[in-house]
Structure prediction request, 329 residues.
Amino acid sequence: MLPSKNSPTCHCRAWQANLPKLEQLVILNWNRHGSGYTGDPFAYCPWCGRPLQDAASVTDKPQTDEIFQFKVTLRDSPYPVWRRFQIFGHDSFYYLHLTLQSVMGWLHSHLHLFEIDGWVIADETHFNELGDSGYIETRVMVAELLPTVGMRCSYQYDFGDNWWHDLVLEATVPVAVRRSYPFCLDGAGTCPPEDVGGIYGLQNFLDAMGDPYHDEYEEYLEWWGKPFDRAAFDVYEVNRRLQQGYDWHGYEVIPALAYKRRFTKPAHTKWLTLPAGKQKAILESCWCGDCQRQTRMVDYRGRIRRGALLLDGLCASCGSEISRVLEAN
Prediction:
């Protein structure tokens, strides 16, 4: 459910001055909560209640190359399982999904989705099947939907075992020199085994593995292959996975994700001279040779080439590498 007009958390900045998107959201909110939105359905932002013109103007600021620090906690786990990690704010939600898989220790072998205030962020196939209101994960950046420290979202992995994770944005910090991102800072608890049966199956697994006389001890021990240490966590191993990729018995389940600052310093300076609305328009009007149409660039980076700003990234539709040159004025 969307926050009320009196909500202290304003999401207006998430839309990067995209007035048509705000109008669509107001219509949707007006239809859902008509008693609270009388009169012109285009009049107010559905989150903060300000007139749309004022709400849109909030976003007319240049984007920054900030690092977003999250804490993710496995919901309802019988023992503490959490991770604290950092990621570029302009990474896509699909990149956030891969990061969560790697820092938690999942094997990227089941469906997933994000939820923010009732809105769904998912892969294109599942999003179309659900028919829900929300976003396709490759087409929206973390900073767009979670722009404010303290904001929360939910992450569901494996719709059978139904693992729910709670994420909270703890801080935004400057890029650290020589550090690659995503980067794991801390954590606790071993990730549950895949396909163990969700929270209830995990509890049964723990009971059996903790008692050699349990009826299912031998069966679970053979299935898991070794004793299960619920407290085991190695932040260095997590960062190795982020740097080098995540291998499981010789099979790469998640590629290397970490890399250094996406923008060189001169490119970053030039990019920040553009207002947010202009930045968004540039990213949404790139050409994809594989799709043969205009597309949006995600997971982008920037550098200066022959005096011009060169943006490299991925097509939001097909994932192919695309580029765009912004000629010097």
Remarks:
- The longest strand covers residues 163-173.
- The chain has three domains: 12-57, 67-190+229-254, 265-326.
